[in-house]
Amino acid sequence: MLHNKSPRTAQKLVCEQKLDSISCPLGELITIVSVQYGRTQPNLCNPYGISISNLNCRSTLISTNAVLSSCQGRTICLLSADNRILGEDPCPAIPKYLELKTSSKA
């Protein structure tokens, strides 16, 4: 009997100017489900609790494509929430973060 395993899903949050990684178990590959670089929540990646007026800061396909080209179909991927690496600054002078939803499947 064959067992179809459901993909493992995960969420990752990386604050601007920080590094993190995502990985899948041996024999499985990363699938990017969604990418968002910007700011939509006031308290995420805001250790000093500063008032942030622009909470409608969302990236375009530029950031999504940068993450896809770096991570899609790999077993491990280094993530950097950095304007230069992601290819855009969706809201200048606003602290941002990178949010990912991923899955791993054989």
List keywords for this structure.
SUEL-type lectin domain-containing protein, about 35% strand, 2 helices, about 15% helix, alpha+beta, three-stranded antiparallel sheet, two-stranded antiparallel ribbon, 5 strands, Lectin_gal-bd_dom, about 110 residues, elongated, single chain, Jelly Rolls
Summarize the structure.
With 106 residues, this protein is α+β, with helices and mostly antiparallel strands.
Describe the structure.
- The protein is α+β, with helices and mostly antiparallel strands and 106 residues long.
- It has one domain: Rhamnose-binding lectin domain (RBL) (Jelly Rolls), CATH 2.60.120.
- It has helices at residues 61-71, 83-86; strands at residues 8-15, 19-23, 29-38, 76-80, 97-105.
